[in-house]
Amino acid sequence: MKIIPYCLGLLSASITAFIVYSFNQWSEFQFHTLSILFVFPVGALIIGFFGASGLFLGKKWTNSKMYQQDYFIAVLLGFIAYFGIYYLSYSFTYFSNDLDEVRFITQFERPQNYISISETIPFWDYLVLINNSSSSQLMLKGVKLGDPIEFGGIFSKIIFLIQFIGVVIGALAIMLFLSSQKYCETCEKYYLEKVLKRFKPINLEDIVNRMNQNLGDGISLNQEINQLSPINKEDKTYGQLDLEYCPKCHKANFVFKFFEKNAKGVPNEINDFRNTIEIKAQVARALLNV
Fold it and tell me: Which DSSP symbol is given to 148?
């Protein structure tokens, strides 16, 4: 079971590379180089994230514990996805030299009278060539603005470094989310979460105190939860009571969370007000009806 997450990681990196490469050929747009104002590498972030997604899903599926070396492996998978795009282009790009005209085409079936780039230069030299002859197209809401901007020299290297960093951040982001998941060392299971109630944060201190007094009584706790004032759509702030628990031994915690809606009505948690209370396994079973 321990090897499954890493196999899924390789699979997700390979699939990511293939999908992005195929999209690039279909759209004639290099998605993996997509950036905002040259400094926010959106494409590289997405590729790093999805390249390592198989490792994340495999860890969750097999309930494998997260280790420090998994961060390094996630970044490696992100790079496999990212450089895999270049390698696919390197492997399936051919050129002809008829009448001194050089034409580049890309397809999976080798055309007659064409030579593969992979037969002429090493992959590393191909990367250097691509890096030194890069260009960018400014776009606004999908509309091209002016002609492509040609880059070279140190500026191309800086852009490539920014993309490099983007892959690292994207891969680490999904693993940081996994590391934030509570893990039961005894049962080797990730905790699950269940939303028990969303409520108006009225007399909250009294509510928490009463729950602390009834931690061993599932019936009384359930009554306290039912007495919490339900929220309305108009409420801009609200509390949420979650039950996080091990699905096997039912070690559990109450987690009080608080949210505030922004101008668009999207709730954002206020982390400073999060409160966690440990409860007994039998109480968790009563609340879960198991």
Answer: P
pLDDT more than 90, % of the chain: 28
Q: At 156, which amino acid appears?
A: S
- Among 239, 236, 237, 207, smallest CA distance to 223 is for 207
| CA-angle at 111, arms to 110 and 114, nearest 5° | 100
**pLDDT tens for each residue of 167-217:** 999 999 999 999 988 999 999 999 999 988 888 877 667 777 777 766 666
Indicate the pTM of the whole model: 0.77
The answer to whether residues 220 and 279 touch, using CB atoms and an 8 Å cutoff, is no
3-state secondary structure of 206: helix
Tokens of 164: 């490099």
Residues 98, 101, 104: CA angle, nearest 5 degrees = 95
pLDDT of residue 144: 47
> Pick the residue with more confidence: 31 or 254?
254
Q: Cβ distance 251 to 184 under 8 Å?
A: yes
